Amino acid sequence: MVKSNAPSAGVHEEINLPHTAAIELYHNALSFCSQKVRVCLAEKGIDYESNHIHLIKTEWHENCSSLYKEVNPAITVPVLVHHGHPIYESLSQIQYIETLKPIPELIPKGLEEKVAFWTATAEVEIEGGELGSMTEEALNAAAARCFGTSVAMLSMPVFLSLYEDITWGNIFHGFLVYPNFGKAFTSFIMKLFGSNFITMAPFSTKSVPIISVGRKHTRQHLEELDKALRMDGRPYATGADFTMADVALISLFERLWQGNYEFLFEDLLAVKAYWQRIQSRSSFKQAILEHRLPIMNKARARIISMKEKVPAYKDALEGKHARGMSETDALMSH
Ligand SMILES: N[C@@H](CCC(=O)N[C@@H](CS)C(=O)NCC(=O)O)C(=O)O
């Protein structure tokens, strides 16, 4: 996350950005927050002008371009723009969309607490923003707290695979334009070693435990969701209707798809059916499927093929699953 020059959350009536449509969205295909806002807009049936902004993981630091800095000096996505006035922070954007078009209700009366539970657990909360600098104990505590954090711990193979298709020119460009040297350097290292980074000493001593902690807790959060769904056979996270809780969960499932982690809920039949139900909604097609970039499909295909070719890589990503054991079996075998 980039904090410098961050404008305050909410609508900025004092700013007038050039625009061609009443509602515009600056967003990125891969970004969790962008996905949530796109799903909300699709669920509400709100038309908008789509301005895709690349981040280095999808192609280049377009978010650092002078044009984009006019939209958001904090260089983050998403930014929602209404009649030229930007709304910063995805949470404020979602609330703004809710007031703009209250029906269909995404936070139905009486379900506020349940929705809040799932939206809070879907958050990514990483102290200091760096998984690599956390102890295993801190990783476990953070992953246990939030489903979003545990899924974020599974994202490294996805990013490494994406970097394999980013040009060196775009990586070096980061040293010139990206305000955080540490992150520009991380992109350089990830590009340099590609997917092998996961299993390569000395990096593997950090990366393998991060993925392992992420996997263990993701499985636990999925089991919790399975239990909630099975309790009364509800189709969606909070009951009969699709709500903001599902909006928040979609981005996590999409990341699990992106990293080919579906094996984590292969035996959780209620979760499996839930994910299929979500994918059959038109909002999923409009907000997620239609935005999957070729580089994202390629990154997933590379992960699948690496797992077939390199047993240590498969082991790092799948743990005991790679050897045909469920995560629960694996825990019990300790
Ligand atoms: N709290 C912000 C977070 C925005 C954010 O950090 N977005 C990420 C993508 S998920 C970003 O734009 N990062 C810039 C980068 O990676 O260079 C929100 O909810 O909108």
What does this molecule look like?
- By secondary structure, the protein is mainly alpha-helical.
- It folds into 2 domains: 10-100, Glutaredoxin (3-Layer(aba) Sandwich), CATH 3.40.30.10; 112-332, no CATH class.
- A 5-stranded mixed β-sheet has the order 1-5-4-2-3, with helices on one face.
- A hairpin with a 2-residue loop joins strand 4 and strand 5.
- It has helices at residues 32-44, 66-71, 90-100, 112-121, 136-145, 147-152, 156-163, 168-177, 181-193, 204-232, 244-258, 269-279, 282-287, 294-309, 311-318, 327-332, and strands spanning 10-11, 23-27, 49-52, 79-82, 85-88.
- The structure holds glutathione.
- Glutathione (GSH) binds at residues 1-2, 31-33, 55, 63, 75-78, 89-91.
Show the helix and strand layout:
Blueprint: E1 10-11, E2 23-27, H1 32-44, E3 49-52, H2 66-71, E4 79-82, E5 85-88, H3 90-100, H4 112-121, H5 136-145, H6 147-152, H7 156-163, H8 168-177, H9 181-193, H10 204-232, H11 244-258, H12 269-279, H13 282-287, H14 294-309, H15 311-318, H16 327-332
Parallel strand pairs: 2-3
Antiparallel strand pairs: 1-5, 2-4, 4-5
Q: Tell me about the biggest sheet? A: 5 strands, mixed
> In total, how many beta strands?
5
The oligomeric state is single chain
**Class by helix and strand content?**
mainly alpha
Share of residues in strands: 5-15%
How many whole angstroms does the radius of gyration measure?
Answer: 20 Å
Instruction: Provide a count of the helices.
Output: 16
Ligand catalogue: glutathione
Distance between the termini: 36 Å
Helix content: 40-55%
What general outline do the C-alpha atoms trace?
Answer: globular
Poorly predicted runs are none
Q: What do the pLDDT scores average to?
A: 94
What is the number of domains?
A: 2
The sequence of SSEs as H and E is EEHEHEEHHHHHHHHHHHHHH
Q: Strand order across the biggest sheet?
A: 1-5-4-2-3
InterPro entries: Glutathione-S-Trfase_C-like (IPR010987), Glutathione-S-Trfase_C_sf (IPR036282), Glutathione_S-Trfase_N (IPR004045), GST_C (IPR004046), Thioredoxin-like_sf (IPR036249)
Protein name: Glutathione S-transferase U1
Pfam family, one: GST_C_3
GO molecular function: glutathione transferase activity; maleylacetoacetate isomerase activity
